[in-house]
Amino acid sequence: MDAVVTAGGIPQPNEPLYEYSKGGSKALIDIAGKPMIQWVLDALSEAKTIERVVVIGLSAKLNLTCKKPLTYMSNQGKMLENLKAGTAKVMELNPKAKYVLFVSSDIPSITGEMVDWVVNTCAETKDDLYYNVVRREDMEARFPGSKRTYTPLKELEVCGGDMNVVRASIVNQNSEFWNKLIEARKNPAAQAALIGPDIIFKFIFRQLTIDNVIQRVADKLGLKGRAIVCPFAEVGMDVDKPHQLDLMRADLQKRARKAAKVLKPAIGKPVTKSKPAKTAADSKAKPAGKIKRK
Cα(269)–Cα(78) distance, rounded to whole angstroms? Predict the structure, then answer.
């Protein structure tokens, strides 16, 4: 599957991350010595299920790295337009592509294993829209103090994931509804109101299930939808506020130190020469001694 990474967001002076981005792209804020998006590209590099990557909103001059073929596109202004442009580029590069993985550039703690889990889980069925959610208990166990916004449902509380699979052919359908839904993505009540009056009633009285939500959105768009309860909190751990940035910096600094220890060559250890293999003659001349048991 091909991935589209959205990186067009630029924090404004009245937004929490402006002091860190200084008017530049949110995706380029430093986390543990790398731009935030580089961590995402590293995960896509590791993923066995990803063939190509399209980055929307950044320039090739930034010298980001990815082991998969990497294509850049300019920011189209709005998120939906970026998704459309990214999908069009995927279809241009790979006309046989049926699905696209949309990944936000602000979930830096994901790994290749998590990407593969999402792609493989979605591949179990032939739906049009797959939406990941993360349970509150999973998020708070992995990232205490993350202070996510949760949607209270009948059976659980969830926050949205930022890595989702969509059938490529549907991205251009019902743009007006998509735009409204995207604009309300940080407000569960507003999203429920958009979906329908019966949904907002169920939301208020906590009778809403995740399947109710996904199916109603799918019905509005004339699609088949499927909710994926993702076990990886990292998929929903996006960086929107300073305390979340601090959390990610601390978490990924630990990962970077751990990786450095693994890669660090042994220094000062004597080089041991391998002994020549014994010949049959040697074996006859010196019978083996008894093996001491520990």
Answer: 56
List, in sequence order, every beta strand (DSSP E) within the chain.
2-6, 30-31, 34-35, 53-56, 70-73, 99-104, 129-135, 151-152, 157-160, 163-167, 225-229
Buried b (16+ CB within 10 A) or exposed e, 204-243: eeeebebebbbbbbbebbebbbbbbebebbbbbbbbbeee
Q: Which runs of E-coded beta strand occur in 77-168? A: 99-104, 129-135, 151-152, 157-160, 163-167
User: Pairing between strand 99-104 and 157-160?
Assistant: unpaired
Q: How many other C-beta atoms can be found within 10 angstroms of the C-beta atom of residue 117?
A: 19
Structure tokens at 22: 């200084």
Q: Do 35 and 27 touch, CB atoms closer than 8 A?
A: yes
- With respect to residue 250, please indicate whether it lies within any of the assigned structural domains: no
User: Within a domain: residue 91?
Assistant: yes
Neighbouring C-beta atoms of residue 200, cutoff 10 Å: 17
Q: Which domain holds residue 108?
A: 2-169+225-243
* Closest to 224 (Cα-Cα) out of 173, 258, 163: 173
Please say whether the dihedral angle defined by the alpha carbons of residues 124, 166, 221 and 9, taken in this order, is positive or negative: positive
- What pLDDT digit, counting tens, does each position of 172-218 carry? 877 776 676 667 666 666 655 555 655 555 555 566 677 777 777 77
We report the CATH number of the domain holding residue 111 as: 3.90.550.10
Residue 214 lies in a domain: no
pTM more than 0.85 = no
Pairing of strands 2-6, 30-31: unpaired
| Region of residue 196 (left: phi > 0; alpha: psi -120 to 50; beta: else) | left
Give the contacts of 60 (CB within 8 A, at least 6 positions apart).
Answer: 72
Q: Quick check: is 288 in a domain?
A: no
Domain count for the chain: 1
